[in-house]
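Task: sequence design from structure.
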């Protein structure tokens, strides 16, 4: 496995990351007979599901569509236990896949890629890791995930704190004993909600520091019986195709009704049905106007607000928890399980940071503009530098030494999230400006992207130089289309990780393509059918 700087190992392809997409990418490139090496920072496979082992971590996608479709044998063998799988089960699944298809032997674990430089003369990428390994590869496929780089908000005083500070995505594998402790949680996104509802009855005191309240949908999460699994298995062949034809890669699609044409009573009936499903259907399988029409969305939002309010005993606390200044679904909607009732507990208090902002972390805990909250443990559920972070922390230099980090600092651009002009033979999954960066059931989209990338590499290898990159015109066209679609939605008016507002200085551009998974898939297919029109193959 070793190489040295004088004679770096020659490979056909390097894969960065051993999560959902990296494992699948390796499987597909092996089928092409390529010499591939994967590098993974974690000690094992799993990606997001390796790192995010905080209490209550769970998928918000149903397990029967949060899986691979490529092997009938695998589909037959693996029994999902719950409708929505906990982290441990998804991680176990990915380990099972890695073992079944013998994928580990081509990955170096505990190895973070630090640099990738395009060498024009040899038409190869020189890839370096933090373990001092250097390899040369014709192709690099960055399968680094979208939620890879945790954010520690710029609050003063972390080093003064005498207790423990833990970011949710760096939760120790052997757990943290929270029993009897005074615990603070900053952040009430999808992660914060899962943590809070899980630990509230384990800790002595829980103080939640909330800046923005969240709309959330109650999760209906039955254990799967043998009969339910058999029924789902029968539907696998149909589901495999169906998810690719929907708006968000789910097992439900947007409704085709015209919102304004229905009576309010009929609309309410439909909303009730969607709500009762206990899934993200209320969001991504709902009225299509939800994302673009303020009046329609207001009605949909109000329906949710009522339901949140009804679950909270203290009207003053309810006022803090009910979102009123942004529209439902314009930020990531979490599923929850008893989250709002947590605030009816004696040992839980909610600190509204809009009224009393955090001033600093102290030796004892957190000081807001009003008072100091003593804590033993501070949990940061403060999110990620999504979409761009995983790649900009690698020193990626394309033609003429141009840095991807510098480019994306000015202008976050890609061609369908698959490639970037100026970075030949660099492919990516879950990257900016594709649905997979946010608006997709991740396995649906990464499998589509990996399949596209694999066929593209197969095609390109027939050319003498085997180099492909999008033309600048094609990229301009994609970015313009992306922006036009994004600007037609209500999302751009809301601060969130979708719009880059959670990272200081990040360009405000919708991180993911919101024109729909089905439409995106068709555009990718057309490019392929037209002989990679808009891409230069040399
Ligand atoms: P999110 O959705 O980015 O949520 C981060 C939370 O942390 C959110 O409530 C933020 O409040 C809060 N936050 C961040 N910085 C601060 C500071 N400085 N002060 C107070 N509060 C802060 O991350 P998650 O991990 O929950 O979810 C990420 C994705 O993982 C999720 O969307 C799923 O796709 C899975 P804010 O909203 O910015 O006011």
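Answer:
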């Amino acid at each position: 496995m070793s190489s040295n700087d004088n004679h770096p190992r020659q490979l056909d392809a390097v894969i960065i990351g051993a999560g959902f997409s990296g494992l699948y990418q390796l499987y597909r490139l092996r089928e092409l007979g390529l010499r591939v090496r994967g590098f993974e920072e974690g000690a094992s496979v799993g990606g997001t599901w390796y790192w995010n082992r905080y209490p209550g971590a769970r998928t918000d996608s149903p397990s029967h569509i949060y899986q691979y479709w490529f092997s009938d044998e695998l589909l037959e063998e693996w029994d999902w236990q719950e409708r929505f799988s906990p982290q441990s089960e998804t991680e176990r699944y990915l380990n099972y896949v890695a073992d079944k298809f013998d994928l580990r032997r081509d990955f170096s674990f505990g190895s973070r890629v630090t640099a990738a430089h395009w060498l024009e003369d040899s038409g190869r990428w020189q890839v370096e890791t933090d373990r001092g390994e250097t390899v040369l590869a014709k192709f690099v496929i960055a399968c680094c995930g979208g939620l890879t780089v945790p954010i520690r908000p710029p609050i003063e005083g972390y080093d003064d704190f005498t207790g423990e500070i833990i970011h949710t995505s760096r939760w120790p594998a052997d757990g943290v004993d929270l029993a009897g402790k005074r615990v603070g949680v900053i952040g009430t996104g999808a992660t914060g909600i899962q943590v809070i509802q899980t630990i509230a009855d384990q800790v002595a005191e829980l103080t939640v520091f909330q800046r923005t309240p969240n709309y959330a949908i109650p999760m209906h999460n039955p254990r799967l019986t043998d009969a339910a699994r058999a029924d789902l298995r029968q539907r696998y062949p149909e589901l495999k195709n169906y998810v690719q034809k929907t708006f968000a890669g789910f097992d439900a699609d947007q409704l085709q009704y015209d919102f304004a044409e229905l009576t309010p009573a009929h609309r309410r009936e439909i909303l009730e049905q969607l709500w009762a499903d206990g899934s993200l259907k209320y969001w991504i399988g709902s009225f299509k106007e939800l994302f673009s029409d303020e009046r329609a969305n207001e009605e949909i939002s109000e329906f949710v607000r009522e339901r949140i309010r009804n679950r909270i005993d203290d009207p003053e606390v309810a006022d803090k928890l009910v979102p009123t200044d942004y529209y439902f679904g314009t930020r990531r909607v979490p599923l929850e399980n008893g989250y709002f009732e947590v605030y009816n507990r004696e040992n839980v208090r909610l600190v509204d940071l809009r009224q009393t902002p955090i001033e600093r972390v102290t030796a004892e805990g957190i000081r807001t503009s009003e008072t100091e909250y003593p804590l033993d443990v501070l949990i940061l559920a403060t999110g990620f530098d999504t979409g761009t972070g995983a790649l900009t922390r690698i020193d990626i230099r394309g033609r003429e030494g141009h840095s991807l980090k510098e480019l994306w600092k000015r202008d976050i651009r890609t061609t369908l999230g698959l490639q970037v002009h100026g970075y030949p033979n660099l492919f990516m999954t879950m990257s900016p400006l594709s649905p997979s960066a946010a608006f997709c059931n991740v396995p649906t989209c990464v499998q589509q992207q990996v399949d596209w990338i694999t066929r593209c590499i197969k095609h390109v290898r027939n050319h003498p130089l085997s180099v492909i990159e999008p033309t600048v015109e094609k990229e301009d066209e994609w970015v313009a289309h992306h922006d036009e679609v994004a600007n037609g939605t209500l999302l751009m008016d809301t601060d969130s990780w979708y719009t880059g507002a959670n990272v200081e200085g990040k360009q405000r551009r919708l991180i993911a393509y919101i024109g729909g998974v089905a439409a995106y898939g068709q555009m990718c297919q057309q490019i392929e059918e037209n002989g990679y029109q808009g891409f230069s193959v040399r």
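DSSP finds 15 helices and 20 strands in the chain.
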